[in-house]
Design a protein that fits this description.
single chain; Rossmann fold; 5-stranded parallel β-sheet; 40% helix; 18% strand
Length: 383
């Protein structure tokens, strides 16, 4: 593995928030791109204590370093009160650039922080995209270990992935006091892994975890705030058929899902692999949407009659319907939902991604190998 892998993410010209889960390479990328910036690392215990007690200290730092124009605050959610002072500094000197990283937006929102009143753009850094890794990308490894840079570069990815998940549970959840019943939350993460790529049934999960439905809903909001997972909304534009109203859930990385998903004699390996593949494609699509210029959003489509398309990308210049199949052959039934979608939305371009090796056109729908598609997917370019 190369020592430093170039990323597709492009920094805005002014101040910005850079959100992303732990281990996605935010700090590494910033140090490479802004070598002359002043760094305030709130993961350092002493630095964290200093700024937690005296958040206005950042004003003293900035005024003592007039030659420095760029200041990086790493993990800003650990000391959100700093934002008041940063806001004031930005008002006094508009030439200053502040880059504020975070692996959680929970404390910022719960504290009533206005995220600098819109004076800093909100951006996101995702796990690696296949095209960033190039020849180093392995579909099989990505499905098992994911594409979090910290895990990809590890000599023992299985052990590192286990430690990574434990780090999130201990540092981001337990130490921050986000939940009182830590064991119940750990059970929830395991239980919710069965809903990866599916509509979440909160009542069933509550019974499995032996907690209230309201508690499960709170746990889900924690997962989203910590950027461990997200809900994918339903595509409802110009709906000609009755569509479902509930969103689907996905973990942010295929490796995190694969690690949390229980496996045993009663579990279908093909079903687990299929969910992992679907999640891997989605994390690429979400990265592509965030890194590309222009507003493009990702959805799924599901009618109450049972027709479902895994992903729909919709924007001013983009309209794609994507179905993902963990199969090496294309079966007639695999195209049924895409054909239904095209009847309602003939403007869309339909694509089926599968585990085969050939790019073929079947009934007017392009079917292509998923690994080839991912390797060619780059910002502002559609394969």
């Amino acid at each position: 593995m190369r020592q430093f892998t170039e990323r597709f993410f492009q920094a805005p010209a002014g101040s910005f928030f850079l959100f992303g889960p732990r281990g996605t390479g935010k700090s590494t990328w910033l140090k490479k791109q802004f070598p002359d910036a002043y760094l305030v690392d709130l993961l350092d215990d002493r630095t964290y204590r200093d700024y937690l007690a005296f958040p206005e200290r950042i004003k003293q730092i900035v005024k003592a370093n007039p030659q420095t124009q760029c200041f990086i605050i790493d993990e800003i959610q650990k000391a959100p009160a700093m934002l008041d002072s940063i806001h004031s500094l930005m008002e006094e000197d508009k030439s200053l650039q502040f880059i504020l990283t975070g692996s959680s937006a929970r404390k910022l929102r719960r504290g009533g922080v206005n995220l600098l009143a819109g004076r800093a753009l909100l951006t996101h850094l995702h796990p690696f995209m296949a095209a960033e890794l190039g020849a180093d990308f392995s579909l099989d490894k990505a499905l098992t270990y994911g594409l979090i840079p910290l895990i990809v570069s590890a000599k023992e990815p299985d052990k590192t992935l286990a430690a990574y998940v434990a780090l999130y549970l201990n540092e981001e959840v337990k130490e921050e006091g986000l939940v009182r019943l830590f064991g119940a939350f750990a059970r929830f993460l395991e239980t919710i892994s069965f809903s990866h790529g599916s509509i979440v049934n909160f009542s069933n999960i509550a019974r499995e975890c032996r907690v209230s439905r309201k508690m499960v809903e709170n746990y889900m909001s924690i997962v989203e705030d910590l950027l461990l997972g997200y809900m994918l909304p339903v595509f409802t534009k110009r709906a000609l058929r009755a569509v479902t109203a509930q969103p689907k859930f996905y973990f942010f990385d295929a490796g995190v899902y694969y690690h949390l998903r229980p496996k045993g004699p009663l579990d279908n390996p093909g079903e687990i692999a299929g969910s992992a593949l679907e999640g891997l494609v989605l994390q690429h699509l979400k990265a592509w949407c965030d890194y590309s210029q222009g507003m493009v959003n990702c959805y799924f489509w599901r009618t109450r009659g049972g027709a479902e398309v895994d992903f729909v990308l919709y924007g001013e210049q983009h309209f794609y319907a994507i179905e993902v199949k963990n199969a090496t052959q294309i079966h007639p039934g695999s195209l049924r939902s895409l054909k239904t979608f095209l009847k309602d939305f003939p403007e869309a371009q339909a694509i089926l991604l599968y585990r085969g090796t050939e790019k073929v056109m079947v009934d007017g729908i392009l079917c292509r190998p998923v690994d080839d598609f991912l390797l060619q997917l780059t910002p502002n370019h559609w394969p």
